[in-house]
Design brief:
By secondary structure, the protein is α+β, with helices and mostly antiparallel strands. It is built from seven helices and 13 strands. The chain has a single domain, classed as Aminohydrolase, N-terminal nucleophile (Ntn) domain (Glutamine Phosphoribosylpyrophosphate, subunit 1, domain 1). Strands 3-2-4-1-10-9-11 form a seven-stranded antiparallel β-sheet. It has a six-stranded antiparallel β-sheet with strand order 5-6-7-8-12-13, covered by helices on one side. The two termini are 29 Å apart. Pathway: Amino-acid biosynthesis; ergothioneine biosynthesis.
Amino acid sequence: MCRHIAYLGEPVALGELLLRPPHALVRQAWAPRTQVSGVVNADGFGVGWYADGDPVPARYRRTGPIWGDLSFADLARVVRSRALLGAVRGATLPGADGEAAAAPFGSGPWLFSHNGAVPGWPGALTPLAAGLTPAELLELEARTDSALLWALVLHRLRAGQPPGDALAGTVLAAAEAAPDARLNLLLTDGDRIAATAWGNSLWCLHGRGRVAVASEPYDDDPGWREVPEQTLVTASRADVVLTPLKEFAA
């Protein structure tokens, strides 16, 4: 399993969201409060953030636990951004892909993360992978369920689907192929956030010119609201919309 967070708002130091709060991502790596499977997320971590004037985000990803990377702690103290996506990884299966398997995955302006697991990987998703082109399969950053889910989402984005539709369609197709899959997906382009709650916790904080969507609250702000199961979240700094995923079913 994993924990992840996306933020849009006024520029903030990465550490102010990922390291400093009492229940920040760094603590969720070893003491998550609402995780339904696994207790430690120490198999890698990453953060992607946007700089003014550049639509393509920077990414910093590593294979070890977030709490052991002193260089990241120093970087997070001074790097500021108006939008970011961070994640800590708890690997479902052993693998040799290293930091390539750590979220966020990215392409162009997009950053993506998956909190969950697909039982029966890789066979369960083989029918979905067959819908990708050879070039898209060769672009996979890692041999993991998360990387393939990202390829499926990106395929839909490149076909012109809005981000919410791309996530919803991917989740419904993956859930049909693997009914016990946990499919909390998180996507941002630096201006908007889309996320799904499917098999694990998801929370949203909105107001005062910012929005955060996260696996669990990073502090005790009373504004945090839990997202209902099997729901799509689409959010910007202006508003948050919750849509039952069953409304996307054919």
